[in-house]
Amino acid sequence: MFSRKSLLAVLAVLGPAQAIRYLGRVNPATKELSWSATGVSFTFSGKSATIGIEGLSGANSAELIIDGKSTYIPSVSGTSVTTPKNLTQGKHTVIFRKSSEAQFGSIFIGNITVDGKFGADIPARSRRIEVIGDSITSGYGIGATLPCTNTAALEIISQTYSVRTAEALNADLSIISWSGIGIIRNYASGQVDTSPIMPERYTKYGANDASGSYPFPKSDRPNAVVINLGTNDFGHNNVRPKLTGTEYTAAMVKFVRQVAAGYKNDPTFFLLTSPMMSDGYPAGENVKSTQRAALNEAALQLNGTKAVVVDWPDQGSDLGCDYHPTPNTNGIGAKLLTEAVAKALGW
């Protein structure tokens, strides 16, 4: 027979089944945090909470947010993450969020325990944004300046345009991103890249789940879908043919219709140009103008689907690892996207 003390301890462990909420695209069957910015949130009354880690793969960075105050964890290790020891007795809100992208690794959530009792679940916000992208969206190399080599610790998702836009608009956020990915073809290297392009990878629940596993639940339906793909498609590195604007337009229209058909709630789409592309490189190719014109044409062809083109200026000489956007460049993109979403949706 349980004593009162042991019964309370059991309830404190069982509580998360009802009290926690997953953030972003998380398969509840696996509790795997794979995509960038996926996580868990909960409230409790007490002085201490522990988030159990059932398993880890690869390398992962994360963020622990207690009552709005963030602590960055450059390398997640061990079997749990615990709130700071100086936490005062009282009501607290806890968010644990993966920062690094799926290519580096995954965090598998275990039991969540508290020394007091769980509070009401943090309700989902009425506004929801989904962002689909490549390394720019993943925060690749955002934590350092050129020259540097990207690592999981340098992908600080809170500094990216996606998180900053969602916070500015008080919206829940889901990120589906993969460095090097394209909408037609992936990053050009000396070898043929046979890994999935975004129209296939997008259908996965967790990033490592089977293709076609995502069920598009009503609870995940976004008001706004942001697509930031094209940097890798247009790149050719002289090892493959140049991409035409017509090809890119057709692929974007097809993918937007794929996403819209999955959710069935008529979200507004925001199509971003890439800050990593310019008309000056490669010389004479005018890739930024080509992408901009192609996205405008896609918006015209998407009859009956609301689509807005957001033109993100070239990043210039302000560079993170491997010529990727810095926090400053992401701030510019966030401001432009926030204004566009607010105007289109009346937020």
Automatic annotation (TrEMBL):
Keywords: Signal. This is Endoglucanase E. Residues 131-327 form the SGNH hydrolase-type esterase domain. GO terms for molecular function: carboxylic ester hydrolase activity. CDD domains: Endoglucanase_E_like. Residues 22-116 form the Carbohydrate esterase 2 N-terminal domain. Transmembrane segments: none annotated. InterPro entries: CE2_N, CtCE2-like_dom, PCW_deacetylase/CE, SGNH_hydro, SGNH_hydro_sf. Pfam families: CE2_N, Lipase_GDSL_2. Residues 1-19 form the signal peptide. The keyword NADP does not apply. SUPFAM superfamilies: SGNH hydrolase.
